[in-house]
Amino acid sequence: MQYIMSFVWSFLLVSMLTYVVSSVLGAHYDFATGAIISLIFAVLVLIIAAVIPNGPSDTAEHH
Fold it and tell me: Which of 5, 23, 31, 32 has a CA that sits 20 to 30 A from residue 53's CA?
């Protein structure tokens, strides 16, 4: 479910961002471009989430 919602939210947010940026620039809105960028963004977010450790470091020192 986490992966599905990551793809859904990335699709919604990146599509909205693509629409707004193309509107501001006066360019033609392309749905396929937004969909492709949203897939790339979702994969990058999931990779970053997998790389970041969950807990604190064992060697952490508090000063």
Answer: 5
The C-alpha angle with vertex 51 and arms to 1 and 49, in degrees rounded to 5, equals 35
pLDDT in tens, 10-30: 999 999 999 999 999 999 999
What's the longest Cα–Cα distance across the chain? 56
DSSP 55: S
Residue type, 35: A
Amino acid identity of residue 15, one-letter, is: S
| 54: DSSP letter | S
Q: Record the pTM.
A: 0.75
